[in-house]
């Protein structure tokens, strides 16, 4: 007779919560159960000493698994769940369960959720349905808290059926375009005028390693996080020559092209006509997960 895993009882106490989280994110009971089962397998291979808040740890694991599953749907080119619910499931039981889910939250809401990007859906569900903070959500979607808040806010508008005023998006695009122009021209004062005094630059590990490898070529050494308008204006002054404007997950940003796929991207968080946060992304997996539409 096998010895029960020491965390099995605690996991079972969290199972319903985890299924609820996965179900809301994925819209499929079958896939939700798969995510929860995978979370258990990962927990069973983890030393209990490495865990702090078990519920928080499990919620994070399940949410990341769900995010990967949503992205896999997009890669496979699957249709959203709601319009063709029956065709996507093998058993009548799972179809009935998923129809019950669609009815419980409203078919209209499910259709809207299916129209969101994977990151938008995860941010919206975790924050608006399960009250996670953006500090907790940020590492799940590999974004900063401000960027996660922006994703959830955009998702919330779409769920409510409210369209963002066209002028707001156009204004953010103008700010990003002006930032890139000032960067290329080396116009320090123009950069300062566009940056919030407490602006933050977040560079992923690939960007930090790339800057260290190219330091001999004059590239500034990046830290994972840099704060302050003066410092960030100096980092960007005279650079971004090859950057192209792009919509990244529906927001104005820029990419650094290399063949058919970008080698890097910058996401911007803009508040009150000032750039408050910039995320520099060079990690290939992170880039692959972004929805990027390069402007000609």
What does this 3D model show about the protein?
The protein is an alpha+beta fold and 296 residues long. The protein has 2 domains: 8-159, PhyR, sigma-like (SL) domain (Butyryl-CoA Dehydrogenase, subunit A, domain 3); 166-294, Nuclear Transport Factor 2, Chain: A. 56% of the residues lie in helices and 16% in strands. It is built from 13 helices and 7 strands. Strands 2-1-6-5-4-3-7 form a 7-stranded mixed sheet, with helices on both faces. β3 (244-248) and β4 (251-258) form a beta hairpin. α3 packs antiparallel against α6, α3 packs across α7 (134-141) and α6 packs antiparallel against α7 (134-141).
The major pleated sheet works out as: 7 strands, mixed
Give the topology string: H per helix, E per strand: HHHHHHHHHHEHEHEEEEHE
Structure classification = alpha+beta
Distance between the termini: 65 Å
CATH homologous superfamily placement of the largest domain = PhyR, sigma-like (SL) domain
Question: Which spans of ≥5 residues are poorly predicted at pLDDT below 50?
Answer: 82-93
CATH architecture annotation of the largest domain: Up-down Bundle
Binned, the helix content reads 55-70%
What layout of secondary structure does this protein have?
Layout: H1 8-26, H2 29-44, H3 54-76, H4 92-105, H5 107-115, H6 118-129, H7 134-141, H8 145-159, H9 166-185, H10 188-194, E1 195-203, H11 205-213, E2 225-227, H12 229-236, E3 244-248, E4 251-258, E5 261-271, E6 274-281, H13 284-289, E7 292-294
Parallel strand pairs: 1-6
Antiparallel strand pairs: 1-2, 3-4, 3-7, 4-5, 5-6
